[in-house]
From TrEMBL:
It holds the Pfam family HTH_3. It comes from Pseudoalteromonas neustonica. SMART domains: HTH_XRE. Keywords: DNA-binding. This is Helix-turn-helix transcriptional regulator. InterPro entries: Cro/C1-type_HTH, Lambda_DNA-bd_dom_sf.
Length: 66
């Protein structure tokens, strides 16, 4: 699964820690999601989307192999 979280986060001027604090997760969670080493739960994905006032579909997309 590909994601655009880092792009949205940087455009908003947020650090990984600031995003983590805003949605009540650890910085490591944000880091592992951004690098696609961890697929977030639906709840975390929705919180991230809400933070950036966008949709989950704008943040995440399936790769052909998925």
């Amino acid at each position: 699964m590909q994601n655009h979280i880092a792009e949205f986060r940087k455009a908003a001027g947020l650090s990984q820690q600031e995003l983590a604090d805003a949605i009540a997760v650890s910085r490591k969670t944000i880091s592992t999601v951004e690098t696609s080493r961890f697929t977030p739960s639906v709840i975390i994905a929705l919180k991230i989307a809400r933070q950036f006032e966008t949709t989950v579909e704008q943040l995440f997309s399936l790769e052909e192999a998925d």
